User: Fold this.
Amino acid sequence: MKKNINQKLNKLINEKNPYLLQHAHNPVNWYPWCEEAFDKAKNEDKPIFLSIGYSTCHWCHVMAHESFEDEEVAKLMNEAFINIKVDREERPDIDSIYMQVCQMMTGSGGWPLTVIMTPDKKPFFAGTYFPKESVVNRIGMLELVPKIKELWNNRKEDILISSEDLTERIRDVRKLNSETELNQSALDRAYEQLKSNFDEIYGGFGNSPKFPIPHNLSFLMRYNKICKNDIALGMVIKTLSEMRKGGIYDHIGFGFHRYSTDRLWLVPHFEKMLYDQALLSMSYIECWLLTGNEDFKQIVFEILNYVSRVLYSEDGGFYCAEDADSEGIEGKFYLWKSDELKKLLGNDFQIGKTIYSINEEGDFHNEKTGKATGDNILHRSSAFDEIAKRTGLKNDELNDKIEEIRSIIFNEREQRIHPFKDTKILADWNGLMMAAFAFAGKILNEEKFIEIAKRNQKFISQNLIDEQGFFIHSFQSSIVGNLDDYAFYSWGLLELYNTTFDILYLKEVIRIQEILKTNFWDKDSGAYFFTSSLSEDLIIRKKEIYDGAIPSGNSVQLTNLIKLFKLTGNVEYQSDIDKIIKYYSMYVTEYPSAYTQFLIGLSNYINTSIEIVFVANKLKDINDYITVLRKKYNSNIHIIIKTPNNQCELEKIAPFTSEMYMIDGKATVYICSNFSCEYPISDGDEIKKRLSDIEV
Assistant:
């Protein structure tokens, strides 16, 4: 049966979401997640076929082309099910629940996520990708759909009992082990686990596929600083260096692909996600602060160049992602034949060949046959110094030549058909990117980055926060905001405050914390639910605590609360911090390296922190002092600036600053640690010396 993508439109045509619109012409009678679909399933006594994916997902495209665009498969699905399509990025609440179901039932998960459930949303079957026709160890849609239909018609009672049992299992939240106390030993065990899983040859953790997981690296950098552990820092340097050389990095247009399919970081899954650019840029900045490696600094400029060029809307928001596929082929946009480049580069081909590891056979293989296609994934197999020796060029000459060759290839590549761009604008991922631009602007002294962060904050406040002050998760919808939206945006605001010292950003973080306490906080057990009390009721109300590809909202919010506590002295924040740590304790005790973002917060909480209050007439009077601090890796230094312009508001937010004044009319610094403050200093040279000596 031939595929027919010109079938009459289904219900998705009325949606704004790019992923749902990709399926609006399918012959499958798709519905969005809505009560109409569930009512129809009840009235017609049909199970729900729930398909969850996202617009830049390669295997989502494969399943769509093979099955959802196929008349024969669609006919079976329409007869057996009420079919619902969900974008996991737009509805992470739904995705999280049913991904847990899939993992419980199959031992693994991923996208596309396929769940079959009763009309009251209780699941009884789950899996990921299913081909059209059955293959070894994987049932096909032509066989699966009739089997499910037969079971529903003939053994419905068994299915209902099974679905009820499964739903109760996912509702069964383990009770807290209040006897477990988290301390430095949890950090030590997380370090040991990461160390035992570290790839000493190629960096990263495990074999393949390899994901960047930047919070693992940030944790190791924090651990290095606290414990003076050079092995921890060495793991970070090795990983960031190998990723920088590998095909997981786009050496021509910049930015990181989502993950590497192999151990070498060579063959990526080619989609580019906004959150990876945000988190990795911050990891590279941190490592530059610790090592002074200029290559790490350079890559930050490149990543943020890519984001501002490709994923930045004219209104100030950031788009989600770029697809892995173009013209229906994964990676086609990024791959090059040797002959193409030889013709393009002319006399510079030999140098280009050395720089980007080009060869006739190529290093990309057909995913079905496993044979080399002759396509090259441009990467650097050697370190910069080795390339300089092989080309005979001095460092400056080589840098100029690399940029010249890169520009030629880039301009040629721009003429190709580009991968699909997912133009959803999500509050949580925008918060991460805002934090990254603010952090980069602060550390690298780049005003253009700070301006992008400020503009993004303004976009979020005007377009993703409603009149009542609550978040909307996506610019393209009216879905109620989740924990990540509030927590990640707060992260961005705190970075903006620490960059500009504009108290309005700090006040907004405090306002958001009040909403989180009212609408997300678990008053019985502590920590935050993923969904608001104002959100749609689903079969369970989950708490996300695992730090996966993206850190959990609870982990990020722990760090936010610690910063708020240190900046304001508000003991209510300290009480909530203690409750979150207690809630996490049993999970972290079992396998601490799965919670590295949380452990960054825990580390900051249990180890020495320093609060520095500057009292001055104007911000410019203390710029030199701020510069001294920004040259440090200072994740546990908290800075407050008190001037006549913000004095009244600051003293309301942070009452402990009310007794801090300038001495003899000169800029004065108060340095506090462990709930006590040193004698204030107003002598400029003495201030610089004292700040230079600070280590945390």
In short: DSSP finds 26 helices and 18 strands in the chain. The first strand starts at residue 30 and ends at 32.
